[in-house]
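User: I'm new to structure prediction. If I give you an amino acid sequence, what do you actually give back? Let's try with this one:
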Amino acid sequence: MSIHLSDSVVYGHLWATDEVRAILGEEGRFRAWLDILATLAEAQAEVGLVPASAAVLIREHAATAEIDLERIAVETRVTGHSTLGLIRVLRATLPEPAREWVYYGATVQDLTDTWTSTVLRSVGDLLERDLARIEAAALALARDHRSTPMMGRTHAQPAIPIPFGFKAAVWASEIARHRRRLAAGRERWEVVQLGGALGTMEFWGDRALPLLDEFARRMGLGVPSIPWITSRDGPAEFTHLLAMTATTIAKVGNEIMELQRLELGEVREPFIEGTVGSITMPQKRNPELSEHLDTLARLVRADAGVVTEAMIQLHERDGRSWKAEWIAIPEACAMTLSATRYAALLVEGLEVDGGRMMANIEARKGFVFAEPLMRFLADRVGKHTAHDIVYDAAMRGFEQGLTFAEAILGDPRVPAYVDRRRIDELADIDRVMGAGPEFVDRVIREAD
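Assistant: Good question. You get back a string of structure tokens that encode the predicted 3D arrangement of the chain. For your 448 residues, that looks like this:
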């Protein structure tokens, strides 16, 4: 029975990927913990704390040990301890000379927090790969539609034309910033944890700091300036990056969902033959990908809140807050990588209808060119007076069903400055799109 939908045979594909399951699944978790324990023993042997022969045996058995989840579960319940069940099962398989050297002086958080850092590293690698793919797809749209006019919208209402490539470049630019945040933050959260009982490493005496350096080197992680047992800002920062990334992706999905509405019809999700939009309305092609991105982002943001709460810790160790990360961080990782997977499919396969975009502009009867006319009048009557003139004409035109030109030319204040030819000249769509195409070029150059 699956409690979480990510583990569901039927629905699991919506909430997690096989890659993240391999990292965060129970067998993957315990296999990684055994590897960390072996690495710790090797580091301790290197600095003279553990016999080298014991470290070799621990490595051999950790690498080949069967992950018997039932036995580990029984021992965990018996001891009431987070990791002692695993240690007991491992020790039972070890030759006598090595049994006392497993987990030598380390604590739960030394093991599990170091594992968390490896998870953030692995998930970060997958996130970087997926974001690069999404950014490339958005850049391709920006390049292909650098000057394709579409209706720009503010407050969900028609405004003035912009290039569709400008919208895609905004997407690409935001994704690129998340990639830079990810790269910059790795040194802060990809660090080992090794502090012993309270973080002072007192158990290992004068070998403590050399041990910390050697353990970090062997783990391929950074060395923290001080153990972070109660300093959870690293995991919190990473989880907030996941939340920001998932939310950017949701924003893209929401825009695509809106533009796919048949009333607009400017873009369409890639359609997979056989996909059913409605069991009662067989004609529908619902924006399933776009909608799901929003759902995933809401849950990741909630997880980010939980991990932020975990930053409130009491004294030198506090299991209450720290264990909440065990739920929230894996879930945030799984759902963000699910979001990036679907976002890549969505943006790469997006169908753009430039003809419909132009038709929607033309359907506005010229009112989308109100701003350039106001700008023209501003040099002659002042900006605010020009605004009042165009505003009055536009409101009258809406109410009476007029075209923009008819409404403007019907205002007695206008003919002294503007005639029909001038209105047509000002309705130059390339001019109205302003520096939009040049901004597209800048984003593309920056990416290159």
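You can read the tokens as a compact description of the fold. Here is one thing that stands out. The chain is about 65% helix and 5% strand.
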